[in-house]
Amino acid sequence: MGQRKVTVKESVAASIATIAWYIESKGMVATAEAFSDAVYDFFLHLSDTRKRYAICRDPERALLGYKCISYKHKYTVVFLETNTEIIICEFLPSKNIHW
Question: Helices then strands (H, E): number in the chain?
Fold first, then answer.
């Protein structure tokens, strides 16, 4: 199984940290840490070279060539895909994408 390099933009890391901070503020420290770990593990799962992903259904992101995939039906991961690299550009709640 080949692997591509996974690059996570700083804005994506900030989005994940904000969500984890919210979970932690509700008193669920272990859950917040588990959420962050699970998201980054999911990003690594995207690096498999045997898979190709669909272009986003959102017209604005599709024009830019972004690919989208759902994470746990609640969040959307927006990324650019090449043969050697995956660049994670956005991590946002699915309800914030309108098409």
Answer: 3, 4
Sequence-separated (6 or more) residues with CB below 8 Å from residue 89: 9, 11, 12, 66, 78, 79, 80
Question: Mapping DSSP to helix (H, G, I), strand (E, B) and coil, where does residue 86 land?
Answer: strand
Residue range 38-47: average pLDDT? 95
pLDDT of residue 46: 93
Dihedral angle sign, alpha carbons of residues 3, 84, 51, 96 = positive
Quote the CA–CA distance of 52 and 54 in Å, as a whole number.
7
List the beta strands (DSSP E) in the chain.
Answer: 5-8, 67-71, 75-81, 85-93
